[in-house]
Amino acid sequence: VKLQRDxxxxxxxxxxxxxxxxxxxxxxxxxxxLAEAAPYPQPEDIFQDLFS
Amino acid sequence: xxxxxxxxYRDLFLCREAEEAIIREYLxxxxxxxxxxxxxxxxxxxxxxxxxxxxxxxxxTYRSHAIYLCRTGETDLFFAxxxxxxxxxxxxxxxxxxxxxxxxxxxxxxxxxxSGLPVAVGAAFANRQKNNGKVVAVFFGxxxxxxxxxxxxxNAACLWRLPVLFVCEDNGLAVHTASSAxxxxxxxxxxxxxxxxxxxxxxTTDVERIHALARxxxxxxxxxxxxISSMWACSRTSRQATGTGRNSRDGxxxxx
Lengths: 52, 256
Description:
The complex is a heterodimer.
Chain A: H1 2-10, H2 14-37, H3 43-51
Chain B: H1 3-26, H2 42-52, E1 57-60, H3 65-72, H4 76-82, E2 106-109, H5 116-130, E3 136-141, H6 148-160, E4 164-170, E5 173-174, E6 177-178, H7 188-192, E7 198-203, H8 207-220, E8 225-230
Parallel strand pairs in B: 1-2, 1-3, 3-4, 4-8, 7-8
Antiparallel strand pairs in B: 5-6
Helix pairs in contact in B: 1-2, 1-3, 2-3, 2-8, 5-6
């Protein structure tokens, strides 16, 4: 990760990098919040998945 | 700056940040799945997956977060699966070790050492029968080489000259056992070069070098490819989610 980041920094894209990293961090936080709020599979769903 | 350099960094950063988030969250015990990290090996997943292109297919191991994230770029289904939720890509029943995204070319990942190898060979056989031009890449650790199915898979792929890329992530360890304590031979690439396949070897964490290798290899011959990529793999498992894991084979840091 560091190697590739340094390569891009050397190309003068520091500002773009920070924006990209912020976008990805936001994407991850949003996904984790969404996942935490989501329901667990119910026993009947698991039964259906296994035996349907 | 090339789009390739940028896209490769985006893949790497996504993988690293997603796993850092898992490590921060894991001790809350909301993620019920045993966790195996790709950290330290992201460059191999990113380089190979991007080289394959959207038409490529991939089979992974139990340590395949990076493969999933590089193939899909998405995190909603991924984290739902980590939390065991019904909205996960495996409906919350697969967990960290059993990821799949067939629409993105990720056939599947498995916790059983070396079990992905024959699946990849079968997929490559199907692709050849369909004449669809797809290449399958199968990732495995050097511990998988100790399994008989590795040699059977390589043999079948070479015999039938299937379009499959065997990608060995060689960190010199099977759990805690060094290669020298497990093998009755000195050098794996030398043995493999006796098969009807091309063997490439590199010792790098440079994603652009790995990408170039993976992109060039399938075009250089119409036969199976074996790529040996020595690497430093972070060995964090769920019990070591916030720990330091194993020592590296030569004292170098695991994560760069």
